[in-house]
What does this fold into?
Amino acid sequence: MGRYAAPATLRDAAGQSRGDRSEGVNERPEAAYATMRTYGDTNHGVLTELHRTSEGSIALSVDRSDMTPPAPSRAQRRIDPNLLFRTLILSATQNRLVKRTMRRHGMRLGAGRFVAGETIEACVETLRALEAAGLHTNTTLLGEHVEDAEAARGVASTYLEVLDRIAGEGLKTNLAVKLTHLGLDDGETLAAENIERIVAHAAKRSNFIRIDMEESERVASTLRIYRRLRERGHTNVGTVLQAYLYRTENDFAELLPLAPNLRLVKGAYLEPESVAYPRKSDVDAQFKRLIERALLGAGHTAVATHDDAIIEHTITFAAQHGISNDRFEFQMLFGVRPQRQLELVERGFKVLVATPYGPDWYLYLMRRLAERPANLTFMLRNAFRR
Ligand SMILES: Cc1cc2nc3c(=O)[nH]c(=O)nc-3n(C[C@H](O)[C@H](O)[C@H](O)COP(=O)(O)OP(=O)(O)OC[C@H]3O[C@@H](n4cnc5c(N)ncnc54)[C@H](O)[C@@H]3O)c2cc1C
It folds into this structure.
């Protein structure tokens, strides 16, 4: 952390991401400085280079024997280096040596750029700095796939304490929760009871709960639980749809009558071609379609991406259709594109920074590394620095 010079002011920070510098502005300098120092910088252009060279992408032969979706064309059977990189990293997450090494050295190597500490105390400090910079936040106790029902109930109880702590601190932070962390793998009923406890407690605290979306085999149960909460009268809850899944278009259509609060994402897991678009361009196209339909429908839309093309598409589409800024928001991850986050705030958009904490950061970190080669380079560089 802190490898790059921190901009002195909020407007400087936004200016850097546009490639210009605004001098002499002095808006909440301490807050901006603290935030940028916490984040570090992420724009070192490696991905842009990779994109340029990816014109002639790597060709892989793909076994399509049991595919149900439309057969891909020859061009579609080529995958780009980004996808290959992502597949390799996500496949390595279960490797015992990788796991042991990352767990032992990950924080020292820079996991702290993506995780707001291992304790709620550390996280609260970060949340405060982000809020002071004009950003909205949510937090998550990192973890998934608990041992047993008792552990899952324990996680739910911790979340109730976190809600109390957020209220006590006077923060506006929401929660984002994974159902596997609340016992989904031990039964849908258990996870449903646990999330309902959290949602009900959040309502008393005027707070909002987002149910994250996990691997494709958990999508149906996650959506059933979300629907059930809404049917039982809970309105302070939303969920997530992943643009890479073929099924998402139907899921979206079924949820629309609920005027849902939806976070739309590309999708972060390693999914087979039988359920998810293998090509980034198809994922991006479906992402844009979903955003447009969500903005035209009722409900609130959170566009969660760091992708400039998607962000600008959202802004242009909303402007063209007279959709006001309070009908949607952008969401980004803590540690990723901080200047862009601040620039969007300056342009008058709501930006929420997902700011997780907790000792079980391993899987979360591996997904961040898989998303961007530069993130892995960042950690490797730290490994060789004294
Ligand atoms: C708030 C939030 C919540 C999420 N929740 C879920 C969830 O519940 N379930 C789930 O499956 N996934 C979730 N995700 C992850 C998501 O599915 C993607 O894996 C992740 O956001 C990466 O995709 P992307 O849209 O940012 O764009 P990518 O396709 O990763 O990147 C597109 C472009 O964005 C730009 N870019 C990306 N990162 C940087 C950077 N560091 N610096 C400069 N430029 C950059 C580059 O131009 C790049 O080409 C969430 C993501 C966010 C932000």
